[in-house]
Amino acid sequence: LIILALLCIPFTDLYSGYGWVTLAGVPVTLIGFIGLILIFMPHLKRITGKLLGWSFMVQAFQMLAILMILMAFNIKTDQIEYLLIFLISSIAAMLPISVGGIGIREMIFFEISNYLLLDQKVAVAISLTFYLITVLASSFGIISALDSRRKKESVSTTIINP
Hints:
Blueprint: H1 2-8, H2 15-40, H3 48-72, H4 79-93, H5 104-115, H6 120-160
């Protein structure tokens, strides 16, 4: 998330003042991530490349989802800025201070959109739309998991009580 956010900066108005952040931040973040894996989770050393690859793919698909939401809202300008806000809000949503990041993501969209001179209402609408789509998509997994659990319980009851 951090690397993708840093890579967005050169395509925004922020680059003129913060270009050095991208140049320094990407290698520092990558080296720091790999260092943390090697120090605290050496058992993951062999699959660190795969972890990075899968993580990148998941985030790329989430960024694609945001781009589709922007297209649905007919927003053709400032798309990189909205992507940058989304990536920053995704980092903040990982903090264990809310359920699923709800509220945190919206606050980040609201505050940073103001800083980047974007429409705050549109920014929060994008965030809420993404959250609702995520909840809807995840609910199918919950239904499947509960159904699978119900089937296992019914099989074990049948075996115990013939």
